[in-house]
Write a structure and sequence with these properties.
The complex is a heterodimer of chains A (501) and B (318). Chain A is mainly α and 501 residues long. Chain A has 4 domains: 1-65 and 124-180, no CATH class; 66-123, no CATH class; 283-348; 395-500. In chain A, 74% of the residues lie in helices and 1% in strands. Chain A contains 22 helices and 2 strands. Chain A has a two-stranded antiparallel sheet with strand order 1-2. In chain A, α7 (129-151) packs across α8, α9 (188-210) runs antiparallel to α12 and α20 crosses α21 (465-484). By secondary structure, chain B is an alpha/beta fold. Chain B has 2 domains: 3-206, Rossmann fold, CATH 3.40.50.300; 213-308, Helicase, Ruva Protein, domain 3, CATH 1.10.8.80. Chain B is built from 12 helices and 11 strands. In chain B, β6 and β7 form a beta hairpin. In chain B, α1 packs across α2, α2 crosses α10 and α10 packs across α11 (266-277). Chain B is globular, with a radius of gyration of 21 Å. Classes of the chains: A mainly alpha (501), B alpha/beta (318). At the A-B interface, α17, α18 and α20 of A face α11 of B.
C-alpha cells in the first residue's frame, strides 16, 4: 500500500519537475509525452501487476501439488515386509499370492514433500524483488537524471534537441489525428471543457464505486487538460471510448455490471448534453448549413433586386412584397422555390427530437416551478406529523414502549448535536457525555440507561413513575444541550422543539 | 448477582485469588450447559479452579491427563469377556458418574480419542457396542490445551473447537494475588476450606431457569447480524457458525441470569462475544488484519447495536 502511494508521489514529482524543466529550457516535453498517453496502461501492467503475481503464485502452487502427487503415485519395487513398515503399504494382492507379506517400496524422486510445502507461504515473499523495487528505482533515477541535466548546460542543449525531436513525433501523431478525426475549431475548447468536467465527475464516481486507482484519475485529468490546453480535441465519441477504455484497463478488478451501467449511463447523458448544446458540431452538417445560408441570402437579394427595378407605378405591389417578406410570409416566392427553401431550412436546423427534448425540459421546469414553492410546507407538515406521532407514544399505555421512545428521542438529540458516542451501547456513553456535557448529567443518564434496557429487552410491565423519570431526563437533556449548543445547533434544537409542540 | 452464585464465587476465591472474571465465565458456561476450553500455559491453576468449582457446587470431579496413548475406550469404557460368567461385561471409562471432567492437554490425545470425548460432550450419552449409557445430569467438561510447545501434538481441528461453548484463558495472576497465594499455602491446602454451597439439584434447577430467560427479537437480530458480518468480513476465512450463534445466545442468557436479570440486553451479547466466538473464527492466511480479537472488536464497533435498533417505536428520523 505504502509502496503504491510512494509510486504515485514519484509520478507527481516527475510531473512537477518536467513542468519546471519545460519552463526553464523551452522544450515541450509534456506535449511530446502527451502523444504517448495511451501507453500508460502498458506501463502499468509492466510495473504494478498484482494479477500477474497472483497467477504466478497459483502456478507455483499447482506445480507443488503435482510434485506431491508424482511422489506418491510413483510405483517402485516390491520387497519383503520388515517390522515397522506401515500396514498401508502392504501389497495385499501379491502377499496373498506369495503367502508372505510384501511391501510396496515407493521411490522418492522429488525433493522431500515437507520442504516443498514450506515454500508455499513464502511464494509471495519470493516474488521477483526486482519488480518490487523497479518503479521506485526508476523514478529516482529519472529524477536524478533530470536534475543532472538541468545542471549541465551541454546536456541541457542535447535534451532540448531530443525533446524537440520528440515534439516533432508527437506533432506527427497530432496531424494524423487531425486528418482522421475532424475537429470543430471554434467549439473545441468548450466541448473539451465539458468533457473534462464529465470525465472528472465520472472518474470520481468510479473511484468511489469501484475503488479504482488514483492513477486512473491522474492520467484522465492529464489527458483532458492536454486536450484543452493544446486544442487537440477528438470528437466526443472518441474521447468517451478512449477514457472508458483507460478507466477499465486501470481498474483494480474486473468491473462489476453496476459500474459498467453507471459509466454507460453517464456517457449517454453527456452525449445527449453535447448534442443538445452543439448540434452542428460535425463538419458535413456545418458545411451544409453554410451552403444553405448562402443560397437563402442569394434568394433574398434576388427578390429585393427585382423589386427595386420595378417602375414607380408598381410601388404598391413592391410594398406588399416587402411587407410580406418582413412578416415572414413567403407568398412572393413561387410555390416550388418556397418549398425548397423550407425543406433546406428544416434540414439545417436542429434535429427534430431536440425540440421534443426542449419541450420536455420546459415541462419539467414548469412542474418544478409549481411544486417548489410548496415543497417546504409539504415537507414540514410531514415531519411535524411524524414528530407528533412519536410524541404520542410518549403517552402510550405501554410504559416500556413510552420509555423506549423517550430514550430514543434523547439519543437522537444527542446524536444531532454531536454529543453521541456513535455505535456504542448506551451504557458506555456516559464517559463521553461527562466530558462533553456535565458530570451530573452523565450520572443521571447512566441511571436511566438501566431503565431503558429493562424497558427494551424485558417482558415486564414497568411502574408508571418510570415514564416520569424518562421525561425528566428528556427535559434535562434539552436544558443541558441548550447551554452547550452554539447558535447553529440552537436553531436546530428550536426547530425540533417547535415541530414537537 | 444471585446470592447462591455469589457464594459459589466466594468459595472459589478462597483458593484462587484475582481470577473472578474467569470463574464467573466458567460458572456461566456451566449454567448454559456448555463446555469450556482453557487455552493456557501450565501452572496457572486450571486444575485448582476446576476442583474448587466442583467442591463448591458439590459435583463429582475427575481428571484425565491426555497423552498419545490414551484410547477412546479409556474415555467411554469398553466391554470385555469375563471368563467366570462367560458373558461380555461393560467396564465404564472415565465418564462414568462424573459431573465435572477436567481433560488436561486435550491436544496431546490422538484424534480418535478427542472425537470420542467430543461426541460424548455433544450427545451427553455414550454408546459402546450398541448399548447406550446416559451421562450424569450436570455434565461439564473443562478441557485445557497448551498454546505453546505444540510439537508432536494433535491440535484440535476447527470443527471440534466449535463444540466448546467458550474458549478462555486464565493468564498469570498479578502481584497481589501471588502474594495471597503464597501466604495461604504455607501450612494448609486452601482447597480443604472450600465448602459446598450449592447442590446438584439446585444447579439443574438453575439451568432450567437460564433456559427460560426472555430474549427479545432485537437481540436475536443483533446476534445474527454479528455472525453474518463475521462471515462477510474480507479477512475472515471461516466466520461464526450457526452453532456459534446458538451458543452466543445461551451464554448471554447465562450472563443475564448471573447478574440477576430475567432478560438479555445487548451488553450481555457484547460482553460474551469475544469468549464465545474468538475460537470459531479463522482468518485468511496472509490477511493483513492482525489478530482474531482485533477483527471481532472491529465487528462490535461496526455492527449496529440493538440499543439503536430502528424497530423500537417512536424514533425521530433525522
Amino acid at each position: 500500500m505504502r509502496r503504491r502511494w510512494a509510486g504515485y508521489a514519484g509520478w507527481l514529482m516527475l510531473g512537477i519537475c518536467l513542468y519546471f524543466f519545460e519552463n526553464n529550457t523551452g522544450t515541450r516535453v509534456i506535449l511530446a509525452c502527451s502523444a504517448f498517453v495511451p501507453l500508460f496502461p502498458v506501463l502499468r501492467s509492466a510495473f504494478f501487476s498484482p494479477d500477474g503475481a497472483e497467477t504466478e503464485k497459483a502456478a507455483e502452487a499447482r506445480t507443488v501439488k503435482s510434485f506431491i502427487r508424482q511422489e506418491t503415485d510413483e510405483p517402485g519395487d516390491v520387497r519383503a515386509y520388515l517390522p515397522g513398515d506401515p500396514v498401508r503399504r502392504i501389497h495385499w494382492k501379491l502377499s496373498a499370492k506369495k503367502d508372505d507379506l510384501l511391501i510396496r517400496d515407493t521411490v522418492i524422486t522429488q525433493e522431500p514433500a515437507e520442504e516443498i510445502r514450506k515454500s508455499i507461504p513464502d511464494a509471495e515473499a519470493d516474488r521477483k524483488p526486482l519488480r518490487k523495487w523497479l518503479p521506485g528505482v526508476l523514478t529516482a533515477a529519472i529524477l536524478l537524471g533530470l536534475l543532472l541535466l538541468l545542471a549541465i548546460p551541454e546536456a541541457r542543449r542535447g535534451v532540448q534537441a531530443l525533446c524537440n525531436r520528440l515534439f516533432a513525433a508527437s506533432e506527427a501523431v497530432n496531424s494524423y489525428a487531425y486528418r482522421y478525426f475532424p475537429v470543430a475549431e471554434h467549439q473545441s475548447v468548450t466541448l473539451a471543457g465539458i468533457l473534462m468536467i464529465f470525465n472528472l465527475a465520472s472518474l470520481l464516481a468510479l473511484t468511489v464505486v469501484a475503488r479504482s486507482r488514483l492513477l486512473t484519475l491522474c492520467v484522465m485529468a492529464a489527458t483532458t487538460i492536454l486536450q484543452v490546453y493544446f486544442g487537440l480535441s477528438f470528437p466526443a465519441w472518441v474521447n468517451i471510448a478512449l477514457y472508458g477504455l483507460l478507466a477499465l484497463v486501470m481498474m483494480k478488478q474486473h468491473p462489476s455490471r453496476r459500474v459498467l451501467m453507471t459509466y454507460a449511463a453517464l456517457v449517454l447523458a453527456v452525449f445527449l448534453l453535447v448534442t443538445l448544446l452543439y448540434p452542428g458540431v460535425d463538419a458535413p452538417t456545418e458545411t451544409a448549413s453554410e451552403m444553405a445560408r448562402d443560397r437563402l441570402s442569394q434568394m433574398a437579394q434576388r427578390i429585393a433586386g427585382a423589386v427595386s427595378e420595378m417602375p414607380v407605378g408598381e410601388m404598391e405591389t413592391r410594398h406588399v412584397h416587402t411587407q410580406s417578406l418582413e412578416t415572414g410570409g413567403r407568398q412572393a416566392l413561387t410555390e416550388r422555390e418556397f418549398r425548397l427553401v423550407t425543406v433546406e431550412e428544416e434540414q439545417i436546423s436542429m434535429p427534430y427530437w431536440v425540440n421534443y427534448l426542449k419541450m420536455i425540459l420546459l415541462l419539467l421546469l414548469a412542474v418544478a416551478l409549481v411544486v417548489v414553492p410548496f415543497a417546504p410546507f409539504l415537507l414540514l407538515n410531514a415531519r411535524r406529523k411524524k414528530a407528533q406521532e412519536a410524541r404520542k407514544i410518549f403517552e402510550s399505555e405501554n410504559i416500556s414502549e413510552a420509555v423506549c421512545a423517550i430514550f430514543h428521542q434523547i439519543i437522537s438529540w444527542l446524536d444531532a448535536t454531536d454529543h453521541g458516542a456513535g455505535n456504542l451501547l448506551f451504557r458506555d456513553w456516559s464517559d463521553k457525555l461527562s466530558s462533553l456535557l456535565s458530570e451530573g448529567y452523565a450520572v443521571r443518564f447512566s441511571e436511566c440507561v438501566e431503565m431503558f434496557e429493562e424497558a427494551a429487552y424485558s417482558n415486564h410491565t414497568l411502574p408508571c413513575e418510570r415514564r416520569q423519570q424518562a421525561l425528566k431526563l428528556l427535559k434535562e437533556t434539552e436544558a443541558a444541550l441548550w447551554t452547550k449548543a452554539d447558535w447553529k445547533q440552537r436553531i436546530r434544537l428550536k426547530y425540533w422543539l417547535c415541530l414537537c409542540e | 448477582m444471585r446470592p447462591q452464585l455469589e457464594n459459589v464465587l466466594r468459595e472459589i476465591e478462597k483458593v484462587i485469588a484475582g481470577k473472578r472474571k474467569v470463574a464467573e465465565k466458567i460458572l456461566m458456561a456451566m449454567l448454559a450447559e456448555g463446555h469450556v476450553l482453557l487455552d493456557d500455559v501450565p501452572g496457572v491453576g486450571k486444575t485448582t479452579l476446576a476442583v474448587a468449582l466442583s467442591r463448591a457446587v458439590g459435583l463429582s470431579f475427575r481428571r484425565i491427563q491426555f497423552t498419545p496413548d490414551v484410547l477412546p475406550s479409556d474415555i467411554v469404557g469398553f466391554t470385555m469377556y469375563e471368563k467366570g460368567s462367560g458373558s461380555f461385561v461393560y467396564r465404564p471409562g472415565v465418564l462414568n458418574h462424573v459431573n465435572l471432567l477436567l481433560g488436561d492437554e486435550i491436544n496431546r490425545a490422538a484424534s480418535k480419542t478427542q472425537s470420542a470425548l467430543l461426541e460424548a460432550m455433544e450427545e451427553r450419552q455414550i454408546t459402546v457396542d450398541g448399548n447406550t449409557y446416559p451421562l450424569e445430569a450436570p455434565f461439564l467438561v473443562i478441557a485445557t490445551q497448551n498454546s505453546v510447545g505444540t510439537a508432536g501434538t494433535q491440535i484440535l481441528p476447527y470443527a471440534q473447537m466449535d463444540r466448546f461453548l467458550v474458549c478462555l484463558s486464565l493468564g498469570y495472576p498479578d502481584y497481589e494475588a501471588q502474594m495471597t497465594m503464597l501466604r495461604d499455602r504455607q501450612d494448609a491446602n486452601p482447597l480443604d476450606k472450600v465448602e459446598t454451597v450449592l447442590g446438584k439439584e439446585e444447579l439443574i434447577a438453575m439451568q432450567r431457569e437460564v433456559r427460560a430467560i426472555a430474549v427479545r427479537e432485537v437481540i436475536f437480530d443483533y446476534i445474527v447480524r454479528l455472525a453474518t458480518a463475521s462471515r462477510e468480513h474480507e479477512d475472515v476465512e471461516i466466520g461464526i457458525s450457526p452453532r456459534g450463534v446458538l451458543f452466543l445466545d445461551r451464554m448471554a442468557k447465562a450472563k443475564a441470569y448471573l447478574e440477576g436479570r430475567d432478560y438479555v440486553t445487548g451488553a450481555d451479547v457484547q460482553d460474551m462475544f469475544m469468549d464465545v466466538c474468538a475460537h470459531r473464527v479463522l482468518l485468511k492466511e496472509g490477511a493483513g488484519a492482525g489478530t482474531v480479537k482485533q477483527v471481532l472488536e472491529e465487528l462490535l464497533k461496526k455492527v449496529e447495536t440493538p440499543d439503536r435498533h430502528s424497530r423500537f417505536p417512536g424514533i425521530l428520523k433525522k
